[in-house]
Amino acid sequence: MHAWLFLLIAAFFQTGWTYSLKYMAFDDLKTLRWDSFYSPDAGLPVLLPFLGNIVFGFVNMFFFSLAIKQIPTPTAFAIWTAMTLALVKLVDVAVFRASWSVTELFFLVVMGIGIVGLRACSAT
């Protein structure tokens, strides 16, 4: 049972990792200087996505590794990917006011049914 919770936590952190990549500016990262490192208008907007990438990535890997010790790897990977896709779409719609269509909703529901089906058929 804990493995499924670990998988859900990993999916949440993978979603955070995805958005940290979206807002990461590699060219701006090269321009960071010690005198403006912690400045809210210069250093932090460049530094926070980079730090988020590291933190979200490591926590995601940690919880995913805990999950695949108890769930078959192909099953865990499929569910982790589907949950992450659903969470990314949910954040896009809820936070960033992205549009969505009935077709997208249909396929998210199909993925949800697949997650429930894999969970029901899994030995753990």
Number of domains: 1
What's the assembly state of these chains? single chain
As a percent range, the share of strand residues is: under 5%
- Helix/sheet category: mainly alpha
For the report, how would you describe the main beta sheet? none
How far apart are the first and last residues' alpha carbons, in Å?
Answer: 7 Å
- N-to-C SSE string, H for helix and E for strand: HHHHH
Overall form: flat
Query: Please, how many helices?
Result: 5
Which regions have little confidence, pLDDT < 50, spanning 5+ residues? none
Mean pLDDT equals 87
Gyration radius over CA: 18 Å
State the helical fraction: over 70%
Work out the number of β strands: 0
Structure description:
The chain has one domain. Helices cover 74% and strands 0% of the residues. The chain contains 5 helices and no strands. The protein is flat. The N and C termini lie close together (7 Å). The mean pLDDT is 87.
Provide tags for this entry.
mainly alpha; 124 residues; flat
Quick summary:
The chain is mainly α and 124 residues long.
Secondary-structure map:
Layout: H1 2-22, H2 26-29, H3 44-68, H4 73-94, H5 102-121
